[in-house]
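Notebook entry, structure prediction.
Reason for the run: the old model in the group folder had no record of what sequence produced it. Starting over properly, with the input documented here first.
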Amino acid sequence: MSDTAPAAGPAMPSAPSRRWSRLPWLCAVAFSLPAALGCGTSDLAADAATGHASLGGQNAPAGKGQHDLPNLGALASVRQDGKGAKKDEKKEPAPELDGGVAWLNSAGPLTLKKDLKGKIVILDFWTLCCINCIHIMPDLAKLEKKYPNELVVIGVHSPKFENEKDTASIRKAILRYQIEHPVVNDADHKLWNKFQVDAWPTFVVIDPEGNLVGYTSGEGNYELLDVVVGKLVDEHKKKKTLDEKPIRFDLAKFRETGDTPLFFPGKVVADEPGRRLFIADSTHHRVVVTDLAGNKLHVIGTGAPGKTDGPFDKAQFDDPQGMAVRGDTLFVADRKNHLVREIDLKAKTVATIAGNGTQDHEAESRRLTQPVPAKEIGLNSPWDLWLGGDKLYIAMAGHHQIWALDLKEKNLIPYAGNGRETIGDGPLRRAMFAQPSGLTSDGKFLYVADSEISAIRKVPLDPEGKVETLVGRGLFVFGDVDGAGQAADGPLAAKTEARLQHALGVAHADGKLFIADTYNSKIKTYDLKSGEVKTFLGGRPLGWFGPDLFNEPAGISYAGGKLYVADTNAHRIRVVDVATKTVTTLHLKGVEPPAAPKK
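New structure, fully documented this time:
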């Protein structure tokens, strides 16, 4: 979150004139909610009101569409009788859902007055890069399963990054995150402004008669939303205003089923000594191992999401991402399970070595000063790994920190970052990161693709050292520019300063960092001596009507003079000869898509 409006970056939506009275926070309109359900929301409200970073979501730049948040205590009387609205309470009709540039997971635009009349509606304001938005998706799926005929969730995709305005990118994200409700591309922030939203994610609840009920923001709101929806179901059944006929939406998955050898591969690791390639086949929920020519060696996991340990054909993962290998042991960041897994390639078994299987939301965990047993604490979206000796470094995207797992002692501790989601250099535990998602090293430093601030960070392996920023300026500063990494602060001030856009991957080789500049669909280099960023490959070499070289690559690895790139949205691995810049697609031999689940 940004405390002040950035000096540069994309224009964000501005605050509209108030067309209705302030929407009440959901914790104040949840009828007879237990007090405990409001605690997290109250913290979020205080954070957002003061402009400080929250553990549960990301705000737009301060002064750009901010709410003047009401005092939660003053709203406690909104539902005085514990049953519903006061008799004289005036209901505010929700604005219509027009203003988006495209609808996805739907045959066409939906309206509250016609298509959704009689349904309880939750609007989920999200953006596809945001880790907090990703974290709440299981909660929404759980609500949809519990109220299949009463509730409709509408995703309102209001973008942060320029690339996120693209309907094709949103469609890929819908498939990657397996979203099964309609999504409107709010590219111009018209719905964001209509509903006076100021943070990702934000939920707005609308009753079956089309009236506003309330809103809340951030993670950890499942119980709150569940109680609100349950009360609305009871109320509108009695009023006979609830439509319980099921609606079948035209989902993107009906047309792109994942019937390919890979489906949104997130990360790749090339093992030069072992002549092996490890591929996180993320949305197939498995790990694929081939030789460097693409011949199958192992397929690890059933292909169905889960967190089962055991033999390769029984084990399960859920959105596996970064990996690290040592001999015949492979370590995997099992992102959605919030676990680190250890794979014995000889015994052909999978075991959990870190995480207790739940997502950790506690601020205290980010402040730990003493190691804790690795399997007794929750993790928070581990996204990438790097192995140095007996230390396994973890890019903990959800905690905005780098953690260290001692493989001998079997314990964990935060290594770098204080947990606040922003940019800040300095001593290891005082520095600040924003969704670190890629790791590499030259043996002296970790280099971090710090995605939400479109940055590359330098983290010392010496615990007395300090974190430095090589490229990047903040949450709302991004672009596609070659130049000096930090021109404005040094002797290169006359030069153009480089910009990335949500870079997710980084690899070290020959004095350079090769960067998967994900939202620019390019590979760029950072020269560790000169500090210069240059585009290495990307775009459409054959012209405007030719194919893109890459489609949002998220993973990159180097071995034997070649780069291996997880070309995520194209469902493939690209191989780049560094000397000649020749790009080919790795043909996987013997790798089949998982069997379709039984109905």
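Summary: The CA atoms of residues 195 and 528 lie 46 Å apart.
The old model has been moved to the deprecated folder.
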